Amino acid sequence: MSRPDEAWLPWLKAELESRGYQVALPAMPNPEHPVISTWIEFIQSLVGTPDEKTVLVGHSIGGQAVLRYLETVGAAGGKVAQTVLVASVFPVARTAEQADQETGGNAVLRPWFSQGVDAALVKAAAGRCTVILADNDPYISWASAVATFKSNLDPTIIIEPGKGHFNEDDHLVDLPSALAAISA
Predict the structure, then answer these.
(1) Contact predicate 167/3, CB 8 Å
(2) Domains and CATH numbers, the chain
(3) Neighbours of 119 (CB within 10 A)
(4) pTM score, two decimals?
(5) Cα–Cα distance list, 152 to 4, 82, 155, 166 (Å)
(6) How far apart (Å, rounded) are the C-alpha atoms in residues 29 and 39?
(7) Are residues 6 and 168 in contact, defined by beta-carbon separation less than 8 angstroms?
(8) Dihedral angle of Cα 15, 19, 23, 27, to the nearest 10 degrees
(9) Is the pLDDT of residue 1 over 60?
(10) 59, 9 in Cβ contact below 8 A?
(11) What distance lies between CA 181 and its chain's CA centroid?
(12) What would the pLDDT profile of 109-127 be if each residue is shown by its tens digit?
């Protein structure tokens, strides 16, 4: 799991702050054993009441957490300005067996890959949405992710060549496409 002090995350925070954004880059609770409800509640407490200035950025399973949070925002009739998802997948309902295929049988991740969200609520709440994927991500099939995002969210999709999972292992210290998506 990513930490807030690794890869491109500190760079993006600094770049956004230099442009006048107020940025929170939190460590998610218990990242080695993420629990959907706990992460949604954490995001809710961090964001407070979302509005037309709220921008959410999620990486990997954190992107799914953002989408699940947005489902609650949409259910309450709210909306954020923008959502940027990096190396993530859209949460669709799957059987436990399908989830296990996606996660290599990881019981901790099974709920994340078996419990879907209401795409209409997410789409209503997500604002302008950008999804950034790599053509060589070892965990995510970019073609499958593109198809699922297009059919459920219809975001702008950026495919980055050779960026892996956009984490520390990929030696990324910046991610200009994320900054450009937010600054656009």
Answers:
(1) no
(2) 9-183 (3.40.50.1820)
(3) 20
(4) 0.96
(5) 28, 16, 9, 23
(6) 7
(7) yes
(8) 0
(9) no
(10) yes
(11) 14
(12) 999 999 999 999 999 999 9
Contact 27, 5 (CB under 8 A): no
Cα–Cα nearest to 127, from 74, 176, 90, 62: 74
Strand-by-strand arrangement of the 156-160 sheet: 55-59, 82-86, 128-134, 156-160
Amino acid, single-letter form, for residue 2? S
Q: Taking a C-beta distance cutoff of 8 angstroms, is the pair 61, 54 a contact?
A: no
> Phi/psi at 11 (nearest 5 deg)?
-60, -45
Chain segment 69-95, per-residue pLDDT in tens: 999 999 999 999 999 999 999 999 999
Task: Transcribe 57-100 into DSSP letters.
Answer: EEETHHHHHHHHHHHHHHHTT---SEEEEES--------HHHHH
Say if CB 178 and CB 84 are below 8 A apart.
Answer: yes
CA–CA separation, 128 vs 140, rounded Å?
23
**pLDDT band, residue 2 (cuts 50/70/90):** low
- Which of these, 115, 127, 124, 114, lies nearest to 75 by C-alpha position? 124
